Amino acid sequence: MVNRGLICPHQAQGWGTINGTAGYGHVGSCSFLELAIKRETLREETVRNYRCPYTGEPLHVESTGRQNSIIVSGALASPSGRRYEINDGIPFLIDPSKEKLTPEEKREAEYYEATAAGYDSIISWLFRSFYEDEDKVRNELIDLLDLRPGSRVLETGCGTCRDSVQIADRLNGGEIYLQDYSPSMLRLGRERMESTPAAKTCTIEYFVGNACQLPFPDKFFDAAFHFGGLNLFSDKRKALSEMARVVRTGGKVVAGDESLAPWLRETEYGRILLNSNHLYTYKVPADHVPECAREVCIRWILGNAFYVVDFRVGEGTPPIDLDLPIQGARGGTHRTRYYGRLEGVTVETKEKVAAAAQRRGMSIHDWLDSTLKGAADRDLSE
Fold first, then answer.
1. Which of 16, 27, 244, 380 is the most exposed place for a label (fewest CB within 10 A)?
2. Maximum pairwise Cα distance, the chain
3. How many distinct structural domains can be found in the chain?
4. What is the structure's pLDDT at 1?
């Protein structure tokens, strides 16, 4: 479980090979184009949904290999000239000149590219180690998305699509967009999706890109999901903000990763886990949740070694009347208390102000505002 958000186009070459056979030409008695059409590939009608991840410009199809409305190869281009390759029906929506991986991100990217084939067995072991039913846990996570038939969903860092299958199961006529930065992971994930009945009841799109630069317009999705990887994002705030940006008002965002619960870190149980896997040392990124988040909930699952943050997307900061007078002796409003702060006074003066305000039946704020304004007006008129 890792930050799967970045990949360079030259690493996409793996898409030109299917089961070890060069992709251009024939695979058995089936041409590459025919094989691609049989699987989930980029549809011409969905191209209009993509945007340049760096400029927000709409993208159009350029120099394609296609069959009817199915796009197999070629490129997507922006009006300003940015060009993104399409390989085996997968758009690679990333510009390596705009991306800088941290050493940790680079190390993890290389690790997941190299170990993609064995990744599923590792995850199966993980759930067994916590005596958890994987399908049950994943379904409970998907429950948090509040999906309905026909929903449009984004999953970032989809990996081998173990969660994607559960999501697709609930869409029935909806759409799911699956992102990863590892072509090897995404290839395995697509194979899994194609083998499930749910894949025939919803539209599935795959793309390689940066989860911190999502190639979609605002409020495009009904929900967004990410599980496993957020810890290693170099900009967690941007990743969560991007998920919120592309989800409609009232839609849900669900994200999670490793983080041992604070109350367990000094126990023997905690020390053993922290010793085995450094990813458990990461803290919940509560301070990176965007200001538009509403009904925020943080919970721990899987032996209290993984966190899940879910929230509903709102508009801007929570609504509040900053100018409503605050009851009590101090008085004022949230706004005046913040923007109207003056230089400190002596304790004796502060006590006299409080006594004078009480005698006049006024709040301290109103007495100060009236008295100081009057004194200032007199001095300024002299």
1. 380
2. 99
3. 2
4. 38
